[in-house]
Amino acid sequence: MHLKLSPEDAAFREELRTYFTTEIPQEIRDAVAQRRELTKEQIVTAHKILNKGGYAVPHWPTEWGGRGWTDLQRHIWHEELQRANVPLPLVFNSSMVGPVIAAFGSQEQKEKFLPATANLDIWWSQGFSEPDAGSDLASLRTTAEYVEDESGARFVVNGQKTWTTLGQYGDWIFCLVRTDPDVKKQAGISFLLIDMTTPGVTVRPIELIDGGHEVNEVWFEDVQVPAENLVGELNRGWDYAKFLLGNERVGVAPVGATKRVLASAKEWAGDLVAEDPFLAARFVELENELLALELTALRVSANSADGKPHPASSVLKLKGTELQQAVSELVVDIAGPGAIASGAGEGSDLEHWQARSTPAYLNLRKASIYGGSNEVQRQIIARTILGL
Amino acid sequence: MHLKLSPEDAAFREELRTYFTTEIPQEIRDAVAQRRELTKEQIVTAHKILNKGGYAVPHWPTEWGGRGWTDLQRHIWHEELQRANVPLPLVFNSSMVGPVIAAFGSQEQKEKFLPATANLDIWWSQGFSEPDAGSDLASLRTTAEYVEDESGARFVVNGQKTWTTLGQYGDWIFCLVRTDPDVKKQAGISFLLIDMTTPGVTVRPIELIDGGHEVNEVWFEDVQVPAENLVGELNRGWDYAKFLLGNERVGVAPVGATKRVLASAKEWAGDLVAEDPFLAARFVELENELLALELTALRVSANSADGKPHPASSVLKLKGTELQQAVSELVVDIAGPGAIASGAGEGSDLEHWQARSTPAYLNLRKASIYGGSNEVQRQIIARTILGL
Amino acid sequence: MDFTYDDEQQALRDAVRGLIGKKYSDFETRRQTVAADPGFDETTWSRLAELGALGLPFSEDDGGAGAGPIEVAIVAQELGRVIAPEPYLTSVVLAGGLVADAGSDTQRAEILGALSAGESILAFAHDEPGSRWAPTASKVTASGSGDAWTLTGVKEPVLAGARADTLIVSAALPEGGTGLFVVDPANTDRTGYPTNDGGRAARIGFNGTAAVPLGVGGDATSVIATGLDRARIIAANQAVGAMEVSLHATASYLTSRKQFGVTLNTFQALNFRAADMYISLELTRSIVDWATMVLVEGTSEEIADAASRAALQTSRASRHIGQEAIQLHGGIGMTAEYSIGSYTSHLTALDHLFGDGNHHLRVLAGKVGDHADVDPLG
Amino acid sequence: MDFTYDDEQQALRDAVRGLIGKKYSDFETRRQTVAADPGFDETTWSRLAELGALGLPFSEDDGGAGAGPIEVAIVAQELGRVIAPEPYLTSVVLAGGLVADAGSDTQRAEILGALSAGESILAFAHDEPGSRWAPTASKVTASGSGDAWTLTGVKEPVLAGARADTLIVSAALPEGGTGLFVVDPANTDRTGYPTNDGGRAARIGFNGTAAVPLGVGGDATSVIATGLDRARIIAANQAVGAMEVSLHATASYLTSRKQFGVTLNTFQALNFRAADMYISLELTRSIVDWATMVLVEGTSEEIADAASRAALQTSRASRHIGQEAIQLHGGIGMTAEYSIGSYTSHLTALDHLFGDGNHHLRVLAGKVGDHADVDPLG
């Protein structure tokens, strides 16, 4: 056991810190710091700059742009991105479909998709959830029927996906589809890549309670998908999805970003921190829990040698989202009467962060629902770790 | 809606306050205030004085000593007892077996038992729980076999009861026993009164984690119980038990006693309250929650016209015990380093309340387990009130 | 002590529910109403006037109905149940209450008469950028004397400020203290915008704007303080209505939504959390009912204490219930089309209008050493 | 940054577990041991000495093993796992640590040598009636000069005070400040009694009792402060051991105990609460491991900060886990025959030895404005 970073890791961190703060445009980092909604262009710009430096997909196989870092280095990378207010590499590309194609795709698929995915030349959307398949993902109903005729071998897709985050920007969508309706529900699912410009694909935005439109419904009506867009084997999609979700959960605790917001909140609160002991206490409790969480992420990453998600990653997801929500709630309280002024525009005498405080708080209620709800995480802990 | 007590109720309260503070010996009330363990004699003395004034069993049928009070008056009575540090009338007599005999017993049973029960001439114990029947009370296994021969009609009881509070003082014990093993488990249970001096009855104290011995195991080995000691009908015991438990829950929120301990805690804390804002905040939160609870008790008692427990009584039990526990935890914290000194005796320089703080805290962990655990209460709320 | 409504109060509740509950029985109606300015339904406002609901707290001499806080609380609970966007709390309870307490005979008759008749929307311009629920003003200053005053500075956010026909404005007085003034908003610089919960607020700039003192003028800090306390208690009633419906919607969703082939109420952990929501709600209802009764019978000091106690409990409960309602709904709870998230949004706004739980905790902590215990029966 | 034990550390853990874990593997042994004075097993204490565990933190020159906080923490965790009653924390970590930090060469060799060899029990008499975890003394006063001092006043509660062969005593100095003294307990008035968790404490009266300054004498407030911080971090390690076993005992009970015809782990609400206990435990383990590393490498200021952070988190977690462990067990969790309640009792004692969560919250709140964030990687 020892406390300090090794000189190599310290140098590594310094290198990242420099790259992130000098290469990524200040206006993008300011937008993140001020909790503004990013444009598609800003996300793409930042991602491409990261990819240029080798910082977009460091966890991929080295053959496809990975860096062979240690777990600790990956942790440092993840934290430093957030600390520098750099938008994270687009998660659908870097943590979801990319690793799946790299692990299970054909050589043709790898060559066709991986470089473009790493560089965000293709913007991927996720097509997993359905209106009647939330936490119970495997009950999905979107069908893909295999057809082989004179126009070639293909799947015909019908159904509806939902909660497709940033689907309005998507070029391609990776979907779980039912290819065999007659077997146990997990067994008849396949993993399909679909060009979103194909006729029959419709994207409809969903308004959320913060007034934003970041998620969408995606409808498929007799969508013709070439057979070569099937990833891996037919009816093995559930395995690939589990692999993907395991990847998603690693580093899922947004510790760095939450710390950054908490530090901003302290600035925003100003003299109030010294005047109001109860406010000071909330900062202490949140800082301490974030410290414990960050240390847990370090301890866990240091211990997961086999690349599989450590069972404690459910702790990171659950506590990470709870703290993210708690910090956003604190900001609303610091905003005071200004917390209601979500529509205040340029002429307002209120601070921008005050106006954003309640929408951000409301928006983050999703954090404990999406990506494996906190109830699912508790179930995983109880079953997998405690044997209950 | 109006706030104030009517002049009649205000006068009623004054009358109780005077009786409790002048008739009950000061040393008994001091012992309660100092959270000391009461002797059997103290409990009996206080109970008999209450009974003399008509304050031991006011909720019984008037024929047997009841007073025909309104719900609000019963609430005031319950609060004023606690406020004056008067030990509550022995719950096994006044709220449990008494009402059951009054409602379901034969005329002979009523005449034999009710006056003696009201006056604590008989000390009753409760024989419900068994080692393998906790929250699932109906799975009890103690058997009572009906035998009729030359020595008369009787039940032969075999089995074991546990968590029998103050069973070491018991003269008689009222038991749930299985009289028909062949039917659905609730259907084969009867309600039996057993003289604890009968051969075959053994009481063994259980040491609790606070070092006290307030609960016991009671063993029955071929205990001969005259058939006339069956209450009501054979195999209807479960109904009587539900009636009894409903009675038990009414007024089960120990608001008055908890308020009294909280007020004492403020005295014990002294200058700390002004010096430590976090301590002040804990007092505020607890006082406010106790206020909300007391008002809920008033609101509920005012609304339960039919004598059945209001469904919200589960709220009173659950929140009441949580607050009781939270106040006991606060006292431990106020005790500071002295909280560990549970064995400190007369020569100690620490305050008696400091030494008692941790045992009281540990002992009160039971409050959310006994008498229908808080999990059972949540289940009742979810099912009965919310239809879940 | 009695927590039950009399027959007239029950009739009032039924009438308001018949009007407002019916109007917004379909959540889509509420959604469309708040999407367009002025953010509420003028026709419904007129009907509330016809019902007598807008004049409830005011004396009959002033054009009101001469009822009291219990009746006002009944209306607020009903508004809360459907999260109706009509500016009852801000216009009738808060601004109207100040006029009733401090206005001259003429001002009361004119302003409250028009308000009660549904002919005029009133707003109280009090919050300032940087202020935190104090009963004083500092960034808007008043100068002048007698009836000839002018105001300068910025008020923001002002609920219903862009739509208001008349403004009651707090301003720092030259000799110290905070005065109340009546201002014609035509002479101000107003920018309106939506609040997170679909309400409306505004930035209002005063630049030597003409203002008439409310009533006799002079320092009105204690009038404002009591006015805010009144609004706190009525806001808590509105929150109780919203929480009640949130809980029932959640329970109902749990019994109908299927996951893993069974309805969600098969999952004990979810049911227990709904039970905890019920506990929060019941405790809050009790303390809010009590505070409403204190508003009828109490001194201003007792009202202040009751307001803080009700607000503290309501703040805790509305976060608990609002957050759990969304979580137990899952994804659909995040969407604007479905009602539950808007309830949470509204509860969040109510929580921050007149001081959140932490604010009231501080207030109460400052005097916790002054009493041995809290006894609602006196 | 590395959270893993090296081979030697693992071997130490196995050895201590082999000794202590085996000794108290049957909970009844622990129960009988604490029932009779001195409240621990002298033979086990000797074996710990033979193993080198008692001298771990002390230099080899002083008769110790020259190891460090990581190794001491390992021993503490193992003691916590079986809630062993041996006075390691108070005698070796707290009192021994003060002697190591401030004692003269001769004192260190004598006192720590005997302590390491298991020949002498050491206690630190510091708490006073009315004191609250400050590093200063006020009710026991010292007078004298050079090596000839006397102490007067009362210390209580003093852990292991009745059994101790040598006392280290804090006392208010005539010129201000708090000094440390070595005292032969034979010259004091001692009354011992059990603590809630089966440990032992004492009231110790000094009445012009002869005392020798520890080391060079003079104000030792900062030495005491660091000594208490060290004890806080090691106590937190002991709590982690106890919490880990509490959680596993609870999970195991849930899978075996039947109610309503099924095992308790059929009830999702209970499983979820066990999952929450696991989360508390994991977070606590992380921060306690980190604080232990700070104890190795940090400045006294960094150690103070880490001690408060670890203590705050441990206090919260040990209440959560201790309370839930009993609740999820139900009635049997209340009995002294069954182990789980004693774990909760011990956690409660550990929580109040050197400052509870609220105490450390105050400490940390006082300096929360001094930094933008908390970065464990520096």
From TrEMBL, chains A, B:
A GO molecular-function descriptor: oxidoreductase activity, acting on the CH-CH group of donors
UniProt cofactor(s): FAD
Domain Acyl-CoA oxidase/dehydrogenase middle, first and last residues per copy: 127-223
Domain of life: Bacteria
Coiled-coil portions: none
Pfam families: Acyl-CoA_dh_1 (PF00441), Acyl-CoA_dh_M (PF02770), Acyl-CoA_dh_N (PF02771)
Domain Acyl-CoA dehydrogenase/oxidase N-terminal, chain residue ranges per copy: 6-119
Keyword Transmembrane helix part of the UniProt annotation: no
Annotated keywords: FAD, Flavoprotein, Oxidoreductase
Residue ranges constituting the Acyl-CoA dehydrogenase/oxidase C-terminal domain according to the UniProt record: 235-385
Gene Ontology cellular component terms for the protein in this record: plasma membrane
Signal peptide annotation: none
SUPFAM superfamilies assigned to the protein according to its UniProt record, in alphabetical order: Acyl-CoA dehydrogenase C-terminal domain-like, Acyl-CoA dehydrogenase NM domain-like
Keyword Flavoprotein: yes
UniProt family annotation: Belongs to the acyl-CoA dehydrogenase family.
PANTHER family noted in UniProt: ACYL-COA DEHYDROGENASE, ACYL-COA DEHYDROGENASE FADE29
Protein name, as recorded: Acyl-CoA dehydrogenase
UniProtKB/TrEMBL annotation, chains C, D:
Regions crossing the membrane: none
GO molecular function: acyl-CoA dehydrogenase activity; flavin adenine dinucleotide binding
A Pfam family the protein falls into: Acyl-CoA_dh_1
Keywords: FAD, Flavoprotein, Oxidoreductase
Domain Acyl-CoA dehydrogenase/oxidase C-terminal: from-to ranges: 222-365
CDD domains: ACAD
Residue ranges of domain Acyl-CoA dehydrogenase/oxidase N-terminal in the record: 7-119
Cofactor entry: FAD
Keyword set includes Zinc: no
Family statement drawn from the similarity comment of this UniProt entry: Belongs to the acyl-CoA dehydrogenase family.
UniProt protein name: Acyl-CoA dehydrogenase
Natural source organism: Nocardioides daedukensis
